[in-house]
Amino acid sequence: MGKAILKRLKSSRMESAEMEAMLNLLIAADAVRLRMEKLCERHGVTQAQYNVLRILRGVHPNGHPRCEIIDRLVEHAPDVTRLVDRMEKNGLVERDRSAEDRRLSLTKITEKGLQLVATMEEDIKGFHGWFGARLSRPRCLALSRLCEKIYEADLGE
Predict the structure, then answer these.
(1) CATH 1.10.10.10 describes domain 17-156
(2) Vertex 44: Cα angle to 38 and 46 (nearest 5)
(3) According to the model, what pLDDT value does residue 96 have?
């Protein structure tokens, strides 16, 4: 059993290797998420808002309907409509009706949103560097494959 998790949880033992692995994954994810949230907060956005901006930058100058944004989010967000509403109010995104289907609303990143993502780029690279300082490239790749094993079967649901 790992010593760090026992120290972190102030425990003397784990019930099983599976429990230890799951708890370690949750604790590590929380540590990474907290660092990312602080980074985003320095730029006046939430992690979820940054995620939406990153998604929309990838299809700029086009946009995505809300359902496509939801499918592409790294972490589940409970109310993407309100999230996009706040972003629109702050001038980071805009919504347009689709020319093909007037019922469909497309969300697009604005110039202000593009500038914000560009401004954050250096901090994001630093964040990746922080992560890479803890795990070598081969270990990062191995961790990625292990994580995929956990969620890949659920992708078809």
Answers:
(1) yes
(2) 60
(3) 87
